[in-house]
Amino acid sequence: MLRRHLKKYIPSRASVGQNRHFQRWGTFLHHPNLWHLNRRSVSGGFAVGLFAGLVPGPLQMLTAALLAVPLRVNLPVALATTLYTNPLTIGPLYLLAYAYGKLLVGGDGANPQAPAFDWLHLWTWIEAYSAWVLNLGKPLAIGLIALALTLAAGGWVLVQIGWRIQVSIAWRRRAARRAAGSRPR
Asked: Hey, where are the domains in the chain?
């Protein structure tokens, strides 16, 4: 059901091949898995999108595309999944990544406070602020990578399980229809 609904919005491989904007990329965008809706391609695209969503700045969709093409996973799913990060969610996600990184790197458990701005001792404030930013850097960088990998793995597993459940339900319904149709009256 969801697959039929999504097929309306995802371009076909033929339409991509005929588009003049995509023709300059040659055969890079012509692999069937980039456009097909199958379990492997969709779960991989979802994982790539979750991973690329935590890339800082406006490079999320570019990162998703650059990862989806060589990994041959569904490109539209990867691009759409990056939209889970937006101005409302990026702050809590980065705080979660910092806490995750602090857990992995280890630390004293105290959140470092930003030094108060002081015009009279500007150079001292700049040094203290730089040290504060560098203290955030290691746990945040490690936390972002770890959280991105965790979200990607979890997303991949969830799509695999959800796809399997959907297929099992469809098989059971089909078997029940066949059994109902073959009963003597």
From this structure: 2-97+152-182
